[in-house]
Amino acid sequence: QVQLVESGGGLVEAGGSLRLSCAASGSIYGINPMGWYRQAPGKQRELVAAIARGGSTNYADSVKGRFTISRDNAKNTVYLQMNSLKPEDTAVYYCNLESLVNGMTYWGKGTLVTVSS
């Protein structure tokens, strides 16, 4: 199986920046599509950003121009650089990986991002 561990969450003031990291380990074969989702209390989980095997990216309209997803394939790690943070960005951010071997989607436990003001 695959394990995903997020890190980098915390408390930041509006307008500030934060970088999230997600390290994948376990039964990983090659490069897999990965992404970041977020969920606020009482809200549905939503896609924030995704990155394909070839490096193409997709972003939610609400974060375009502010967030950047990237990956380090050698480290099996995906990052989410978040700039110009807004209070509405407050949520638990989850990393996910889509296995090309068995078709399953794996999730991390999440990291909390809180934007004040």
Task: Give a description of the structure.
The protein has 117 residues and is mostly beta strands. 0% of the residues lie in helices and 54% in strands. The chain has strands at 2-7, 10-13, 18-26, 34-39, 46-51, 57-59, 67-72, 77-82, 91-98, 105-107, 111-116. Strands 2, 4, 5, 6, 9, 10 and 11 form a 7-stranded mixed sheet that branches. Strands 1-3-8-7 form a 4-stranded antiparallel sheet, with no helix packed on it. Strand 7 (67-72) and strand 8 form a beta hairpin.
Based on the model shown, name its key terms:
single chain; 117 residues; mainly beta; seven-stranded mixed beta sheet; four-stranded antiparallel beta sheet; 11 strands; globular
Secondary-structure element pattern, one letter each: EEEEEEEEEEE
β-strand number: 11
How far the N terminus sits from the C terminus, by CA atoms, comes to: 40 Å
- Integer average pLDDT: 95
SS content category:
mainly beta
Largest sheet: 7 strands, mixed
Show the helix and strand layout.
Elements: E1 2-7, E2 10-13, E3 18-26, E4 34-39, E5 46-51, E6 57-59, E7 67-72, E8 77-82, E9 91-98, E10 105-107, E11 111-116
Parallel strand pairs: 2-11
Antiparallel strand pairs: 1-3, 3-8, 4-5, 4-9, 5-6, 7-8, 9-10, 9-11
Short description, anyone?
The chain has 117 residues and is mostly beta strands. 0% of the residues lie in helices and 54% in strands. The strands form two sheets. Strands 2, 4, 5, 6, 9, 10 and 11 form a seven-stranded mixed sheet that branches.
